[in-house]
Design goal:
By secondary structure, the chain is of the alpha/beta class. The chain is built from 9 helices and 8 strands. Strand 5, helix 5 and strand 6 form a beta-alpha-beta unit.
Length: 252
């Protein structure tokens, strides 16, 4: 179960169909296609209509918070009603760069969390250099359907707190990196019932493909690394994380 991908990205323009047509025979059963901004929305909708195993999310990434104009908020709600996404995301906070202003990011984040609650949808959370504030907002506005903290990069203690709140932790290729010590600790200590597999493709390809274009075909490398860290079977990792994804996103 691929819980986070970006197959609308131009990195896939030359072989997108060929790649996706190979997923089933390579054991990838479900792919969550995460939205980031309004510019990509039509492409993602088209993609998820074409491939039934690809599942739509709708939302605006914090780097594009200023896109949430009054008109686009109306459009987003209309799309939620008409397209029936499986989640709102990816949304959150990203303070790595100076723009957009944190105030605008927070307002966009809270607005979309309220949307998720209103439409009874889970959320996909992006948090970069904003761990404490993200947690604070999630405690106050997190939807009852919960969600996943995608591409988790904080401490085990924070992962444990999110898990206690009912959220899943998204683990991707970084768990295979030599400098991925924090994520490896989380993979070791956090119960498998709180973990989702993700690639965030085309980004963050696992070893031995680090630096290359990533894809869901590399999910087995992530699953195997988690199995090695936990001292359990690859099959158990795949089975439990798939059940987690099906439960959270409600897809078939």
């Amino acid at each position: 179960f691929e819980s986070h991908s970006h197959y609308d990205d131009p990195a896939f323009d030359h072989d997108r169909d060929e790649l996706l047509l190979n997923m089933e025979e390579n054991g990838v059963g479900h792919i969550i296609c995460a939205a980031a901004n309004f510019d990509d929305t039509d492409r993602i909708i088209e993609l998820t209509r074409k491939y039934p195993f690809c599942h739509l999310t709708l939302g605006v990434h914090p780097n594009y918070a200023l896109q949430l104009t009054p008109d686009n908020r109306i459009r987003l709600e209309q799309l939620i009603k008409s397209e029936k996404p499986c989640a709102i995301g990816e949304i959150g906070l990203d303070y790595h760069y100076d723009e957009p202003d944190p105030k605008d990011q927070r307002e966009a984040f809270i607005y979309q969390l309220k949307l998720a609650e209103h439409y009874d949808l889970p959320v996909i959370i992006h948090s970069r250099d904003a761990a404490e504030e993200t947690l604070e907002i999630m405690k106050e506005y997190g939807p009852s359907r919960k969600g996943v903290i995608h591409c988790f990069s904080s401490s085990y203690e924070l992962a444990k707190e999110y898990a206690s709140m009912g959220y899943y932790i998204g683990i991707g290729g970084v768990v295979t990196f030599k400098n991925g010590r924090k994520l490896r600790e989380i993979a070791e200590k956090l119960p498998l019932e709180h973990i989702l597999l993700e690639t965030d493709c085309p980004y963050l390809a696992p070893v031995p493909h680090r630096g290359e274009r990533n894809s869901s075909l590399y999910l087995p490398l992530i699953a195997q690394e988690i199995a090695n860290i936990k001292g359990i079977s690859y099959e158990e990792v795949v089975s439990v994380t798939e059940a987690n994804g099906l439960r959270l996103f409600g897809v078939k």
